[in-house]
Design a protein that fits this description.
Elements: H1 8-20, E1 32-44, E2 50-53, H2 64-72, E3 77-80, H3 107-117, E4 120-125, H4 132-145, E5 152-155, H5 179-196, E6 201-205, H6 225-233, E7 239-244, H7 255-269, E8 278-284, H8 296-311, E9 316-319, E10 330-332, E11 335-337, H9 364-375, E12 381-387, E13 392-398, E14 404-410, E15 417-424, E16 434-438, E17 446-449, E18 455-458, E19 462-468, E20 485-487, E21 494-497, E22 508-517, E23 520-527, E24 531-534, E25 542-551, E26 563-566, E27 575-584, E28 588-597, E29 602-603, E30 606-610, E31 616-622, E32 625-629, E33 632-636, E34 643-644, E35 649-658, E36 668-670, E37 673-674, E38 676-677
Parallel strand pairs: 1-15, 2-3, 2-9, 3-4, 4-5, 5-6, 6-7, 7-8, 8-9, 27-38
Antiparallel strand pairs: 1-12, 10-11, 12-13, 13-14, 14-19, 15-18, 16-17, 16-19, 20-21, 21-24, 22-23, 22-25, 25-26, 27-28, 28-35, 29-34, 30-33, 30-36, 31-35, 32-33, 36-37
Organism: Streptosporangium pseudovulgare
Protein name: Alpha-L-arabinofuranosidase
Keywords: Carbohydrate metabolism, Glycosidase, Hydrolase, Polysaccharide degradation, Signal
């Protein structure tokens, strides 16, 4: 409803009041400290980083306007034919029995839009109601007959939602709904499709850690969905497929554990050569239709999640959806939120007559993807960045030409935060950097050249990217060392090896191994060779290291790609512990702990361990006295089981709760001694 006009005098007074109102600051004398470490490298930015989903029920799928908007957003991968519709869609006659197919959404139309966008396609083959032969014929049509060069092919969509675990939304005509049957068919699909075009990449559906039905084991199955699928289909696939609708705006911190757990599952179950298997997030949305699906909170969460997923090595993150349709309409941070999971308005209305903006009007998350694509370009490499303020998040990349980009996200609704940026391993040029900004309610990203590289004030609910040139372009520096590898990992040591760096104008004098600790890295060793055993590591801990080369004149190379490994516990100890998960329901589990005394007899014992993450907690425990203080758990024997003879074992149990990726405890101490974890 239009607002009544203010009288002129009232308008002037209101304007003066706004101009004279003080800007809110968290602390006038202490800006937010932002640390950017150019020597702590993470994943490189892939060609397919920023993606989105198309759906055959979207009549605007093939329009030039849609393709041009996606191109302007930097979208480099488009997925087709649209989520669960993939499992009812038959490409040859462009039908989806039981669903709606809009005009002008066939495969050739989709590909025309893909090419206009400048993106790569990803196609989901019909597992639910299709066959391997149908999928192979699609590959032939796409890559042999038409020459489209479709590289990425998924086998089905969310096929764990076929009723195997209770909920059924995904079509599946197979009599056997088990993960074993899905895995057998993935093998058959892969063989048939690669017989047509051996260059394609095949993806298999996995569940996302800490998201239903991850970790559940159905009756008759040999393990969870992921364990069974990877054990059978692992040798035949090239990537795995995750979907994530976190339903909240503060979950990006869970991403490193999420991706690491998936990599651990791949390494354990997929067989030899499993390191080739990539990870794709082919559906992502902040998933909160009443907290900012189309407004700025959703955009800020999108930018944070995209950057975090890509920095952790996911090769594409694909927004659901390009167009989706109106949902619950609310007011969020001063703007109408249409509860629409699309990037662009569908121009639809509610039954009550509330209508979205004109079709193809970009929503706030569209601008978030646009910001991410301008911040992190293919070929850039993510580097560590962090802040000391929970409301401000930082991401950074180093570009091949030596420039550095920092993306800052202020999630506060009412505070403009000043920030002070400290660069490690990088000297910024003087003068004004290029600054990209998107603020609450803005209809586009503004570009300016203002301020300096080390200080900035971030408006409330804003995205800001600062692009900084180096102070001087040093020629003749060494190249980056090759991808490091690890061997001989113990509780406190590991041997790191790497391919030699290419020398610049001066010979390479030494290599330095640097351990990441958040956005700070420390040198933990150096050598003139290409292998080093590092010591004094913390047991049972995930470590990420980079290697840099230094020449005889002090010139330093870019850092190597990261290497992540986990130390173990002592090979021998007076005590050993075995933790076994006996059951898991997706938000909690029953754990059993066997404590074995390998030393002298013990009369009275105390076991301690820590939850690796803040989202884990103790529900209950038995066969001992259990207490928790913060993330630390203490377990003391009961009067009847305090004596442990040499070689004796005590078994205790507990219920552990979790609301994020469930990284199990690794390190246990018995009466102050670190035990061997088996």
């Amino acid at each position: 409803m239009p607002r009544p006009l203010l009288r002129a005098a009232s308008a002037v007074l209101l304007t003066l009041a706004v101009l004279q109102a003080p800007t809110a600051y968290a602390d006038e004398t202490a800006p937010v400290a932002v640390t950017v470490n150019a020597r702590a490298a993470l994943a490189s930015v892939p060609e397919t980083a920023v993606g989105a989903n198309h759906a055959i029920w979207d009549s605007r799928l093939g329009t030039d306007e849609t393709a041009d908007l996606l191109k302007d957003a930097g979208v480099k991968l488009l997925r087709y034919p649209g989520g669960s519709y993939s499992d009812i869609y038959h490409w040859a006659d462009h039908t989806a029995p039981g669903g709606y197919v809009a005009p002008d959404t066939d495969f050739d139309t989709f590909m025309r839009g893909v090419r206009r966008t400048g993106a790569q396609p990803m196609v989901t083959a019909n597992y639910g109601t299709g066959t391997a032969e149908e999928a192979a014929a699609w590959v032939r049509r796409a890559n042999v007959t038409k020459g489209y060069g479709v590289r990425y092919w998924e086998i089905g969509n969310e096929n764990y939602g076929n009723g195997r675990y209770g909920a059924a939304w995904e079509a599946d005509d197979h009599a056997d709904k088990s993960p074993a049957e899905y895995a057998r068919n993935v093998v058959a699909y892969s063989d048939a499709m690669k017989a047509v075009d051996p260059t394609i990449k095949i993806g298999a559906v996995l569940t996302t850690p800490a998201n239903w039905p991850d970790a559940l084991v159905a009756d008759g199955d040999a393990g969870s969905w992921n364990e069974v699928v990877l054990s059978t289909a692992g040798p035949k696939i090239d990537f795995v497929i995750l979907h994530w609708y976190p339903g909240a705006f503060d979950r990006a911190a869970q991403v490193p554990d999420m991706i690491q757990l998936v990599r651990k599952q791949i390494a354990k179950h997929a067989g030899a050569g499993s390191e080739r298997i990539g990870i794709a997030m082919t559906e992502f949305n902040t998933g909160s239709s009443d907290r900012g699906a189309t407004t700025q909170p959703g955009a800020l969460a999108a930018a944070d999640a995209y950057a975090t997923l890509l920095a952790n090595g996911v090769f594409t993150v694909d927004w659901w959806n390009v167009h989706n349709g109106i949902g619950k309409v609310t007011e969020v941070e001063g703007h109408t939120d249409y509860g629409d999971f699309g990037l662009l308005s569908s121009g639809t209305c509610t039954d009550g007559g509330v209508c979205e903006p004109a079709a193809n009007t970009p929503f706030a998350p569209y601008h978030a993807l646009q910001m991410v694509s301008r911040f992190a370009r293919p070929g850039d490499r993510f580097i560590r960045a962090a802040t000391d303020q929970a409301k401000v998040t930082a991401h950074a990349v180093r570009r091949p030409d030596g420039a550095l980009a920092v993306m800052l996200i202020n999630t506060s609704s009412d505070t403009s935060y000043p920030v002070a940026i400290d660069y490690s391993g990088f000297s910024p040029a003087s003068g004004a950097p290029t600054v990209l900004t998107h603020t609450n309610g803005a209809t586009g990203i503004t570009t300016s050249a203002t301020g300096d590289a080390t200080s900035r004030t971030l408006p409330p609910l804003s995205l800001t990217t600062i692009i900084v040139r180096p102070a001087s372009a040093q020629a003749g520096l060494p190249g980056a060392p090759g991808q490091p590898a690890v061997s001989g990992v113990t509780d406190r040591a590991a041997t790191i090896s790497w391919p030699a760096a290419s020398a610049g104008t001066r010979p390479i004098a030494k290599y330095e191994v640097r351990l990441q600790n958040g956005a700070v890295s420390e040198q933990i060793g150096e050598t003139a060779g290409t292998s080093l055993t590092v010591r004094n590591l913390k047991p049972g801990t995930r470590h990420t290291v980079n290697v840099i080369a230094r020449d005889g004149g002090g010139g330093v190379s870019p850092p190597s790609a990261p290497l992540t490994f986990t130390t173990g516990t002592p090979a021998s100890s007076p005590c050993s512990v075995r933790l076994t998960k006996q059951s898991d329901w997706g938000s909690g589990y029953v754990g059993s702990i066997d404590i074995t005394n390998n030393g002298a007899p013990v009369n009275g014992w105390t076991l301690t361990f820590g939850w690796p993450r803040a989202w884990q907690s103790l529900g209950s425990g038995w066969s001992a006295v259990w207490t928790q203080n913060g993330q630390d758990v203490k377990v003391v024997n009961e009067p009847g089981n305090g004596s442990l003879a040499t070689g004796a074992t005590a078994t205790i149990g507990y219920v552990g709760n979790y609301s994020g990726p469930n990284v199990l405890p690794e390190v246990f101490t018995l009466n102050g001694t670190v035990c061997t974890t088996r």
